[in-house]
Amino acid sequence: MAYFIDVIVPLPLKNTFTYALTTEEFANIAEGMRVAVPFGKTKVYTGVVLAKHTTPPIKYEAKPIEEILDSNPTVTSRQLKFWVWMASYYMCSLGEVLKASLPSAFLLESETVVELNKAANIDFSELDDNEFLIVEALQNQSLLRIQEIMQILDKQRVLPILNRLVDKQAVIINQEIYEQYKPKVVSYVRLNAIYKQDDKLHDLLDELSRAPKQREVIFKLFETSASEKKLQASDLAKLCNTSSSVIKSLVDKGILESYQIQEDRVQFEGESTLKDITFNAHQLKAYNSIQQSFETNSVCLLHGVTSSGKTEIYINLIKDVLAKGEQVLYLVPEIALTTQLITRLQSYFGEEVLIYHSKYSVNERVEVYNHVKNKTKGKIVIGARSSIFLPFQELGLIIVDEEHESTFKQYDPAPRYNARDAAVVLANLFKTKVLLGSATPSIESYYNAKHQKYGFVSLNKRFGDVLPPEIELVNIKEKYKRKEMSGHFSDRLAEEILNTLKQGEQVILFQNRRGYSPYLECLTCGESPQCPNCDVSLTYHSYKNQLRCHYCGYHIAMQLECMKCGSADLTTKGLGTEQVETELKTLYPDHNIGRMDLDTTRGKHGYEKIITAFENEEIDILVGTQMLSKGLDFRNVGLVGVMNADSLLNFPDFRAHERSFQMLQQVAGRAGRTKKRGRVLIQTYNPFHQILQQVSTNDYVGMYKDQIEERHQYKYPPLCRLIRFTFRNKDFNKVNEASLWFAKSMANTFKEHVLGPEFPPVSRIRNEYYKNVILKIPKQQSLSKTKEVIDKILKSYTAIGQYRGVRCVINVDPY
Fold this sequence. Notes:
By secondary structure, the protein is an alpha/beta fold. The chain has seven domains: about 5-110, PriA, 3(prime) DNA-binding domain (GIY-YIG endonuclease, 3-Layer(aba) Sandwich); about 115-170, no CATH class; about 195-255, no CATH class; about 280-460, P-loop containing nucleotide triphosphate hydrolases (Rossmann fold, 3-Layer(aba) Sandwich); about 470-515 and about 575-700, Rossmann fold, CATH 3.40.50; about 520-575, no CATH class; about 720-810, Alpha-Beta Plaits, CATH 3.30.70.600. About 35% of the residues lie in helices and about 25% in strands.
């Protein structure tokens, strides 16, 4: 009987691929194991076994696999089910889900290697200079990689030369599989076991009487052995104030022995000071209500105002789950948030806390993945959206903190999933519970709670009965008229900043645009430098004195004269965080000013350094983008200033008003989180805007009613589903023709529910033109049947030769 497996290959291809197995391989293989499989003529990929069976493929002959890479499955059966759901719902391939799910170290890669053909008699007279150099190098070492050949020849294009050598049968080209993950092994030193006996130790010390430095090392080791502290050779040398050569000579003599231990790259150094949390009456009521809600609902929405003590409720719920021996997933929207949260949770749970996000190295992520799968360490995982792919064994609770945040949505590459929605499906696979927490819930979650799909718990009092911040709207249109502005600061904001600093409190200023100035303008001809690759103006960054594109990274030096008319009369327009920082340094020269945006937090510990400095009150005024709005807890912030609220409101997106309310409300929530009431000043040209009025009175329900009415009228989520199709190509006409054909084909079936094709606000990025078609799917319409129709239209689309180069990117629930 023939045996086969279906393998998911890490490529954006819709199908799985069937490979043949021997009887022995079939007996040793299981679903979820990794296998090395040949693909195409020369490539070898790591695939994951989706199913094993005895049915041969119809359209092709199954190739044998290269090798089985695991003795136990790397991927659990629940993960595989989750992947299949994700590929189906978000209309992407299983290969794309595989690439997103596994740390890249698990996906072994094949690398082209060149070896000498020992069976051939090489005629050196037929070789040119480059060919001779390669053959000569191969006579001195067994194989060469492509990169090494490039270095030997000092050329980038070496494949034609290698092809000539293959034709002359001088070399053989193979694929070598290499593994990326290497466990961290640390070497330590200890006293040889034979010297643990008193008489042997006395003899040794007598023997070393003429080597005082070596004697001192032995004494130090003996002292530290009582504390059971492991010592590396370098640490021991420092302790004894001696050189490493002294330690080495003791190892060589066999007096000390060197041993190795495999260790985690990320370790918790402190101690957990586990203590009971004392709830106030409001928290206790909310906690009990959540427990009751979980009896009838699998998902519960906790609507708790900023600084109401939601984290303490989460901690108690986590304790309940850990008592049952189950695992917890705590999802946060931004890495910046994890810094504070980790410290807080580790003070309760110590080594039980594992962290997983993109700033971790590949090796660090592999270690967390293995701990979660094998349950060797840590039952609580705090992570960004990618942590929903971890191989949980007994998941008891998923907490989605700040569930309204748009950063839970993955935009590129596929799968373009929303971690909040995917968490609900993942919990369903484990038959467990999800808690969504936010001070400003998303319209969808609140709608689901109102329609009894989710449980709902409200926590509307701040911890310690602190009053919500006092919010004041400053009309900068009037301030400019009356000449009461210093740069971009109204006299009111400048005065409040000064008063706050005098009281020894800190200030947060919010401006949701990085850089110094959004664009440069010539006052003579009105020209503004544009990016040659994208349809956007270049942003001025003063710290590098350059103009930079935030889409493709293109940059040029700051212009001294207009590129069009040659005039030197140039000015910067608009406002970025860098300019706010510069103006603050002029206005408040005696105070420390920090900035938190994408430019200042690029390093692995970038967020941590800034947040810690602000917590320790080393920074008096912190300027930042939306990173500052996400659940950070600073105890000494007396004032929050919003530099310009209008840039949030005037955005071409049906969610613009909802997002503006959420962001302003969240930023305002950073003020006055302890005993004293905080103050919030929002500068705007339009203080009578409905959203700003609702923010100033903290009227979430009013905002929800307005927005849901609009969504009902214009058929937007949560009252219907959206799928966006984005067409991309470097040829403008091709993009136009392809998107128009697709929109017409869709309109034949879905009629008025198809919008477009339309160019997005930024219609060219990296020299590619973009055009969107949007499909609205009413609630009563079957999603699965709709996707079947879309698949048929996509097959017809890909069959048209002239559109083949125009890529169609599918984004389900795009906003």
